# Entry
Amino acid sequence: MKKFIYLILTLMIVACSSQPQKPVVVETPPETLPSEPLPRHEVHDVYDYVSSLQWVKKLSEASNCTLKKKSFKDRVESVLSFDYSNDNGKQVYSKLVAHKCTARTYRTKNPWSSVIATTYSSNKKDFYLNTRKNPRPYPSMINTSFHECLHNVGYGHGDNSPNGKQNSVNHKVGKIAQEESEGCY
# Structure
């Protein structure tokens, strides 16, 4: 039996070695052809909504439109530093476009509440728009949607006092979004 196995192996080795070997040809592209441009990075929709209210749907669409503008991207990425964060504008933009945020609505029990919108620390996707204070003009609501989504991304601005927060990620990027939102609503 051993001799038979040895004979089979020998025949297989001889058969393989007697096959003509094809040379490996590596084709190199001619240097005269122009190189193809890299495909443009498409930004997916970050904003979604869960509401039957048309203005919430329109806000979500307008926020996605603003986010996809090259001028918005360029302005955010040009920021070298923010207060309350170690990230620069490129890092902030990258984290924002990798996130998903969902606009929802609620109604405060307190009719005198000044809360426009809120997020909850346990939920890193949803933000809530107070229907006692919204709808407002779209540029202002777009500012709010970016501000709240950036909370969900992980950025903060200290307490809720508006003084001295203009250079926080949430306030600065929200303001840029508001300014760049023209044509999206």
In short: Residues 2-18 form the longest helix (17 residues). The longest strand covers residues 101-106.
